[in-house]
Design a protein that fits this description.
Four copies of one chain form a homotetramer. Chain A is built from five helices and nine strands. By secondary structure, the first copy, chain A, is α+β, with helices and mostly antiparallel strands. In chain A, strands 1-7-6-3-4-5-2 form a seven-stranded mixed beta sheet. A two-stranded antiparallel sheet of chain A has the order 8-9. In chain A, strand 8 and strand 9 form a beta hairpin.
Chain lengths: ~190, ~190, ~190, ~190
């Protein structure tokens, strides 16, 4: 493992939408996680970031990739409260889980956004199966590149840390032959 | 004049944004008026209707065409109040005047929207120089067609009704040689 | 009439496609003419210029606007001969008449292109009802602006020059109430 | 290995452009191969297939992915000869190698196209590092999905068949840490 890798800070979320249960990065270990940090009144998020996250949510298997939105409001707070967000998610047909980043005790930048030191919205975050932060991108990334980067992380083998701690190195079977991609024509191995 | 033409109902607006003074159709007589009826959380408005209205606002001379937005909220009222709208207009760089349609005394449909019997958002309304309703379109219209329809109305001669009432028929000079269009390279007669 | 206006030079066309008869500007007097000068292997023509001309051809009435393509080949001559052009027009579903600009006696630039002093392809030319050159644009023009410019020319009254020569000034009835625009939902006056 | 996998038929190419040397699938063993089968006068190829292949050519490392175009002319043969194709590749700035599929001895469908039983153009073909045909798609595939599918093949380990035949199983080191993606901001491991 390269030394620059660091554990992704846990999400600090006030409220979840499109999800019955709370979502934690800890609970996503073993899967790749895509976090789309956005604001509902950010044009670049509406035009590019959120549609791209929605496409990723539809294409990849939930066993391989968890897609979550993170509403990181750092301006116009009164205009982007929970009720507004709820209407927005409904109108834009966003179906993946979205968490509201917990407001800071002081200042406009919410807590998760601060922990990740995000530059603004939209920002895309990729976390590997072991919980390491692998990619953080402010602005747009092409679909071709995102598809490649997600799959590169999906294809990584996972060392079972619990077993490692027990002193037994035990590699998971390669996910290679099991990765599923779904499009309009169905799902393919 | 064809018999189907009817006077455009006056706007019933609660509050104006992007405009120091209130705007009335009465005050726009002599100019063509484009009304873009929208809701800030309506995807078709954000993607198509509002950018098109903004382009018309930039292309045509304000002496020929008045462009106004009309925020006709008929759903998610709590999510689309004045403060939210203000943030939205700022973030999406909408620079033409926008009026908030006055809420109904009863029911979700605001007053101007009801008076015009609009089917939904986005809706485009064109009013001629004499104040007659000439076009009402729910959904998308192509830029090519809209450009043509606006110019057809601009090119209509205006009979001065006040003078008509005095018994003097007095035709305005044709606007032909004075119509100005502005694009990135400057303005053209 | 402004002094800068000049008569549009007659087309010098070797062969017409999508048209049983030859087309001349002389024969189009009384109508507005849009000439789309293009090369079949010019990306900007394929992506922007030709689709725009096709939309204009569908939107406006043939009584108001004549749309013609002009294949002004000034490079890769061997790759863009008549047989190639024929296949191209078929594959790209271009249905308006297209004339092949007559090759020069000397040099790569064909005759009509030289007469109009076009800078390259795509170039858009607009000619008014009386045969005057009103617009010549190299590169892209927005649909909104083109629609407006075409309609401005359509709405111009036409002085019958033949009758003028006979000493009788005779203005055509304004085209105003007769202009027809057609879209997916039908045709509108 | 799943039983449905079959070796990709070797390319039968008459002439290569954008490449000094001939390209064979045999020579690409060890790398993933993307073949974009197209016709220069096919609108779907010009609008979607070729730009997508060009993006893949720029994004992935040539050590991981070989991108080749295959000009599979099955109609308008006279309009799409080598000289026309050369002009087309120049005008559309296509920089990856393109082979001209060898015409059939009989009938309009060229040889490689027939060997792969392609349904038409554009068609996308993906071949894995060991030379097996893994994907064949007529029509459009999304950038997100293509990026994922290419990377899935890149991440497959390669068994050295020559050594296998010698009875020595020898796995290549995982390509994982060496895969490079390049975008406007540079190249990333």
């Amino acid at each position: 493992m390269r030394q620059t890798l660091q554990k992704a800070p846990e999400l600090d979320v006030q409220q979840w939408m499109n999800s019955k249960a709370d979502i934690t990065l800890q609970g996503c270990l073993g899967k790749v996680v895509l976090i789309e940090a956005f604001q509902m009144l950010c044009p670049g998020c509406v035009e590019h970031g959120l549609p791209q996250a929605q496409k990723a949510y539809q294409l990849f298997s939930p066993d391989d990739l968890v897609v979550v939105g993170l509403h990181t409001v750092f301006e116009h707070h009164a205009a982007m409260g929970p009720e507004s967000l709820k209407a927005f998610l409904h109108e834009y047909r966003i179906s993946f889980p979205v968490g509201i980043d917990t407001p800071a005790d002081k200042g406009p930048v919410p807590k998760t956004m601060a922990n990740y030191q995000l530059q603004g919205t939209p920002s895309l975050i990729l976390i590997d199966r072991r919980g390491y932060l692998r990619r953080q991108k402010f602005g747009a990334i092409s679909d071709l590149q995102l598809g490649a980067e997600i799959m590169a992380l999906i294809k990584e083998e996972v060392v079972d840390h619990i077993n490692l701690e027990k002193g037994e190195e035990q590699r998971e079977e390669s996910k290679r032959s099991q990765t599923v991609l779904c499009d309009d024509q169905g799902c393919r191995v």
